[in-house]
Amino acid sequence: MAPLLPARGSLAANPGMTVDKLVVPRAHWEILSAHAARCWPEEACGLLGGLPGLVHAVYLVENSLHSRTAYLMAPADQVGAMIDIEARGWEVVGIFHSHPAGPETPSASDIAQAYYPEAVYVILAPGEGGVWQGRGFFIAAGTVQEVGLELRE
Ligand SMILES: [Zn+2]
């Protein structure tokens, strides 16, 4: 992973919080939410590649646990995605997974197993009327700080 960017201003509280929002183009959001719906009732997962604060590509990764309450990225998929991200000069700007029974906030195990302080953890959960909702978080050293997701056309 790239070294941490220097913390700035009010973001200094969390050393991993390098951007104040993550912009997700709507077409990419639709890929994410469709994947979460397709995997339901199992957790879905994957990576977001791009430049800090901006998603350029979504990498869908198999949840090798096929669990309703946990995920483990299939290593071959995860490594392939990371190689592609690096080859394009991007970074892993986000790591997404779904909570099929909600809520769209990190679980205790999500916090304990967060190894990428500079990535935004995007968590999706089904909301009212079957519309998937998502929230983003920086998770570093056991602390969680929400970062806004901005859907953009
Ligand atoms: Zn989770």
Write the layout of secondary structure elements.
Blueprint: E1 21-25, H1 26-39, E2 45-51, E3 54-61, H2 75-87, E4 91-98, H3 108-112, E5 120-126, E6 132-140, E7 143-152
The chain binds zinc ion.
Outline of this structure?
This protein has 153 residues and is α/β, with parallel strands linked by helices. It has helices at residues 26-39, 75-87, 108-112, and strands spanning 21-25, 45-51, 54-61, 91-98, 120-126, 132-140, 143-152.
Walkthrough of the structure:
There is one protein chain. A 7-stranded mixed β-sheet has the order 1-7-6-5-4-2-3, sandwiched between helices. The protein is an alpha/beta fold. It starts with 20 loop residues before the first strand and ends with a strand. It has a single domain, classed as 3-Layer(aba) Sandwich (Cytidine Deaminase, domain 2). The chain has helices at 26-39, 75-87, 108-112, and strands at residues 21-25, 45-51, 54-61, 91-98, 120-126, 132-140, 143-152. Helices cover 21% and strands 35% of the residues. Zinc ion binds at residues 97, 99, 107, 110. Residues 97, 99, 107, 110 line the site of zinc ion (ZN).
What keywords describe this structure?
alpha/beta, seven-stranded mixed β-sheet, binds zinc ion, 35% strand, Cytidine Deaminase, domain 2
